[in-house]
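I wish you would study the pair of lines that follows with an eye to the fold:

===
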Amino acid sequence: MPTEKISAIIPAHNEERTVGAVVDTVRAAGFFDRIIVVSDGSHDRTAEVARQSGATVVELAKNQGKGSAVAVGLAQTDSPLACFLDADLVGLTAAYLAALAEPVLSGRWVMSVGMWDRGPVSNFLARFLPLISGQRVLRREVFEDLPPKFRSGYGMEAAMTHACRSGHLPFGRVFLPRLKIVRKFAKVGLFPGLVGYVRMFRQVLGVMVAVRLDPTRQAD
């Protein structure tokens, strides 16, 4: 059992097909203080399914982006530790959550980053690429200490990694075999999915550049 409270924050935009299973698995893990799903402007049954699975649900009227949804969810709890999870995971298990949480619960790391299974070649290459996974357990101040301009969209993941690295804070990655995500192409189709990935990578690359050009890391 953890010695500190840990809450799960799950940002979700139109994830009715998978969010229920993710919440069920988090509940089955048995060590989370709260499970909070932030329905980020969803226009499907995301909120309803998450609520039926036992999560506390916050519904945003308009899509605000992943970082903003995480901030809204984190504000709902006073837990010193947080677990950020994508709502489109497939194959998540309680054992994976325990493995992801252990380095932070034990005090060895301030942030643990879960790497989903991309296949043998991509898994090997991912060791040399920036950590931008949405599966994380961390001390909440890792996110809250980011300047507001770095907390929005998908770029907040790159910003958190940079903050730990530049601040010499211990963090690391945990490989989660057989864990998958539902690709955007499968959700919305080829062209909209491609547009979504381009937008995501633009945000990530933009923040990766911005944090290096802003060594003082002061808020606007």
The first strand starts at residue 6 and ends at 12.
